[in-house]
Amino acid sequence: MNSTQSSGSAGERRLQQLLGTTDQAGTxxxxxxxxRLTPQMAxxxxxxxxxxxxxxxxxxxCDVTFRAGPPGFVTVLDDRTLTYPEYRGNGVLASAGNITxxxxxxxxxxxxxxxxxxLHVNGTARLHRDEDQRRVxxxxxxxxxxxxxxxxxxxxxxxxxxxxxxxxxPHLEPAPRPRPRAERPKDADYFALRSSLLPAQCxxxxxxxxxxxxxxxx
Length: 218
Description:
Helices cover 21% and strands 27% of the residues. By secondary structure, it is α+β, with helices and mostly antiparallel strands. This is Pyridoxamine 5'-phosphate oxidase family protein.
């Protein structure tokens, strides 16, 4: 951005004044925060296989999630536009649902393996049906999830993009995914309340399944 007055939120600027970092932040805004993707940023996005995604509903309730695919699954259409596919998944469509209420979106790309650097991209998003997006952009990838076809594309207009410094980014080595442990619960049950975590059963019941309501529940 050319003017620090137009960069950052009012809350950022109040805290910068309180903590004495106004000049430091101004230097960051002037040197690092871009209103569009630079060629280096576009190239970086094209190499990434994962992204962290943040959305919020109309009331401001936030949701953060993770997207992954082959390099280029987030496609740079031009220096102001990104797009990525949305699949049915668990059918909840939390991120897409938020976008229908509140178009603001944030993405974080992190290179954990080579240059240990991150890139923030913030903007506004719209949802396009797969056939409509491909009609306008026929070169979109078709194999981001083999055997599956996107239902929607998230079409993002970039408002700002800036670096995430490397200082605390860990180094991760790519490796084949190991076979799941036999005792690993299924995804749908992984964080569910398990019998070993239930309150102790009444004396005389033993290890049989309780037939009445669980303690504390009706």
